[in-house]
Structure prediction request, 465 residues.
Amino acid sequence: MNLLTLSQSYDEKKVSPVEIVQQILNKIQQKNPACNAFITVCEEEAFTAARQAEEEIMAGRKRGPLHGVPIAIKDLIFTKKIRTTMGSKVYQNYVPDLDATVVQKCLEAGAILIGKTNTHEFAYGPIGDRSFFGPSRNPYDLEKITGGSSGGSGAAMAANLAYAALGTDTGGSIRIPASACGIVGMKPTFGLVSKYGVFDLAYTLDHVGPMTKTVKDNAALLNLLVGHDEKDPYSFSKTSEDYSRLIGESVKGKVIGLPSFFFQNIEEEVRKAVDQVIDVYRSLGAEIREVAVKGIDEIAEGQRVTIQAEAYAVHEKTMRDHADDLDPEVRERLVMSKEVRGYEYVQVQQRRKHLIDQFNESFHRVDVLLTPTLPIIPTNINQRDVMIGNHAEGVRQALLRLTSPTNFTGNPGLSIPCGFSRGGLPIGFQLIGKHRDEAQLYQFGFVYEQATSMNIDVAGNNAGE
Prediction:
């Protein structure tokens, strides 16, 4: 079952939250040692919450679609009285005294926190194999990466160890593991979801978002997460909105843009899978149009400068006091980040609004942009270089290349599964929209999902078996 199917089963009194939590914990016990999705499993807390949810639901006091639903939270998001490690030795025993705003919202909706999921140390890596607690492993092939940094959340969803998960995304860290693990992942518009109580990686690039099995599940969870939060200086005021409101509407006559930058140097299996996606949309009556995105090279460079400068600002004290405790690769990346000069960072920020406006000119001619999420199939754990045709590229650079530009611009991006490689590894495509246009992305995502029956629940039921 996916999230909304489970919620309906509660309404019909077919199953109980206590039964579901027991099933999930049994699966975690069986599968987590192999895929390493969870750092901390909240067994006692989950049963307590399940008993309360069962009592309330049976008494007709259901709070909404998340009530009684087991969810996983990335171990970068603070949970009160439950350790939050950031995937690092430095914080291996850290227990926050507060819940992040997104956790508060989930708990108030009656969701059940089943555990804290693995993350690339400090979320500073898109691969997912550099955690103090060991790499998260792809349930479709345990020798392959989950992608990162929200790799544990991706693995938990693919292996059916939760009904939904929260991740964070600074350069692609929700969408990368969503693609690599065959699930749906949304990076919302910057500022739409509060970051309060989420350990920083880069102040102006970090996003929190939902990871689910289906598009409708994703919209339901985003509906819960959004809202102005005065405790987050980047949170913008906004009236409430139902992000599922366009789900089920046709895309006939809509225009999909294919930005040329995002189709350069991609593996042939990825290209074929995305070509099939394009054919599906064409068959549904959408117009396909190639577009050139202005300033994309400068945006990519702006993202690099911004993440490095801000990440070192976050970790300057960590590097001074605990450098020897960090993973060598993460430490090396932070050392490199220190090389960004103050004037370079300021110059980028001065140009940023202009570059965002240029990027958004694309939407004068199209409704959404469609791209591969990743240019490559998930690589081996610890692999650091990959050949794309005759083109050699670092794995980290390849994983980030198609997702990170929209962290800099703040545009929403939705990754949706679109098939498998010859080796049985998931492939995903990405839909990018105007700021605050998540509802339309869900509209496009859902019609594809329905047209192809690429219901992620089918794939997930086989993952990790």
About this structure: The CA atoms of residues 13 and 319 lie 53 Å apart.
